[in-house]
Amino acid sequence: MPYDVCISYSSLDRDRILALTEQLRGEGVSVWIDQGGNDAVMLYNLCCVLCFLGERDKAAETFGRALAAGYGNLQWAGRDPDLEPIRDNPTYIALMGGS
């Protein structure tokens, strides 16, 4: 089934997003919602955006938050071109096990 709107969110926004989802559905909008709220992937993607914006220290800190939230694809993180700006960041290096 195609959806009009797809929603993924941080667990911190869960109550607000669930209310919004019900409002949209009440107006006849077809909504798919990620019931789990994948904080780890959201934080990893935020890290990528921060790299793009040149916020290297914030990006490295956010990468650590992504790992703490359960992001585990270190093989991809080690070669993801979006993370190139933080490859020499000490926080990133430590989080990647010093490699």
Describe this structure in words.
This protein has a domain at 39-95. The protein is built from five helices and two strands, in the order E-H-E-H-H-H-H. It has helices spanning 14-26, 39-52, 56-68, 74-77, 90-95; strands at residues 5-7, 31-33. The longest helix has 14 residues, at 39-52. By secondary structure, the protein is mainly α. Strand 1 (5-7), helix 1 (14-26) and strand 2 (31-33) form a beta-alpha-beta unit. Helices cover 51% and strands 6% of the residues.
Secondary structure elements and pairings:
Layout: E1 5-7, H1 14-26, E2 31-33, H2 39-52, H3 56-68, H4 74-77, H5 90-95
Parallel strand pairs: 1-2
Helix pairs in contact: 2-3
Please bin the fraction of helical residues. Answer: 40-55%
* Distance separating the two termini: 44 Å
Shape: elongated
* Order of SSEs: EHEHHHH
| Helix count, DSSP H or I runs of 4 or more residues | 5
Q: Which value, in Å, is the CA radius of gyration?
A: 16 Å
Give the low-pLDDT segments.
none
> What's the total count of β strands?
2
Q: Name the average pLDDT.
A: 88
Strand content: 5-15%
Biggest sheet, spatial arrangement of strands:
1-2
The class by helix and strand makeup works out as mainly alpha
Q: How would a crystallographer describe the biggest sheet?
A: 2 strands, parallel
